[in-house]
Design brief:
Blueprint (H helix, E strand, L loop, with lengths): L2 H6 L22 H9 L24 H14 L8 E11 L5 E11 L2 E2 L4 E6 L3 H8 L2 E8 L4 E11 L2 H8 L4 H9 L9 H14 L28 E15 L7 E6 L10 E5 L2
Antiparallel strand pairs: 1-2, 1-5, 3-4, 4-7, 5-6, 6-7, 7-8, 8-9
Helix pairs in contact: 6-7
Length: 281
């Protein structure tokens, strides 16, 4: 951070109180410009030191997937982690730049992990969504889990494959009926003029399958009598399996001396055999 930018940071923390350890400028600049920067910047002062016993090499499983399952169970069991399956997934689109060369633009969003099997990590989505279209063109993906209460994070890199129709059908029809109606009706990532358009599409789907009120848009019409109704999976909806070739486990420690271990393997081999290395924090 340059002295000028550091000096321009506001002394107001997220709680609205004046900071006692805000940065100060050592470089003279335009008074008006510096004042404008102060009015439009907020210094983040909410971080506290991580307090854990750390992660030792001897505690690691030889398998990245086994190690993940261990940590994931810890997150499930922790009372202060209400949704441990929430993960950030990042995809990359290739766009043509002004010079005719391809420009890689990443995009990220929160998605829920639905299953971990012996081959990788599984989530479901609309294949016509932005992430679905980007994965169709570029199958490489990154996942990130962060469990603050444990001061742990897991980063996954790999390549996706689509699930079979049988796997998609099995999961789709295990979901609440209203969720299935929403998945069929929503043109995910497409522009819509208003929520009323979405609700109209949902009602059209309910009428198509003769399941009135399935999505709960009308509380007086909602009923559980159709919950076990089998609904065909639309061809634009399904799952991806992320087959990892890199998995990193991070545990926060005080004074930024965190523990990081990275598992890597040859993606072509897809064997549960990993090389493990410690990384500097």
């Amino acid at each position: 951070m340059t002295d000028y930018v550091a000096g321009a940071l506001s002394k107001i923390g997220l709680n609205g109180k004046e900071s006692t350890n805000a940065y100060s400028s050592t470089t003279q600049g335009s008074g008006a410009a510096k004042e404008d920067e102060k009015q439009n910047a907020t210094e983040i002062l909410t971080h506290n030191q991580y307090k854990t016993t750390g992660l030792d090499w001897d505690a690691l499983s030889p398998s990245a997937l086994t190690q993940f399952r261990t940590w994931f169970q810890d997150a499930i069991d922790h009372p202060e982690i209400p949704e441990p399956e929430a993960m950030t997934i990042s995809t990359v689109s290739l766009q043509e730049g002004q010079d005719g060369k391809s420009i890689a633009r990443p995009s990220s969003r929160i998605v829920l992990l639905k299953r971990v099997d012996k081959r990788g990590f599984i989530f479901f989505t609309n294949y016509n969504s932005r992430k679905g279209m980007e994965l169709e063109r570029n199958p490489f993906i990154a996942l990130t889990f962060y469990w603050h209460a444990l001061h742990r994070s897991v980063r996954v890199c790999g390549k996706v494959e689509k699930l079979s129709n049988e796997e998609n059908d099995q999961y789709f029809n295990s979901r609440p009926l209203g969720s299935r109606m929403g998945a069929i009706a929503s043109p995910q990532s497409q522009h819509i003029e208003g929520r009323n358009i979405l609700e109209e599409k949902v009602k059209e789907v309910e009428n198509k399958y003769n399941i009135p009120g399935a999505a709960g848009l009308d509380p007086e019409q909602q009923s559980d009598q159709y919950e076990d109704r089998h609904v065909p999976v639309p061809d634009y909806w399904g799952g991806f399996r992320v087959i990892p070739d890199e998995v990193e486990f991070w545990m926060g420690r005080s004074n930024r001396l965190h523990d990081r271990f990275r598992y890597t393997r040859d993606l072509k081999e897809e064997k549960d055999e990993w090389e493990i290395s410690r990384l500097a924090p």
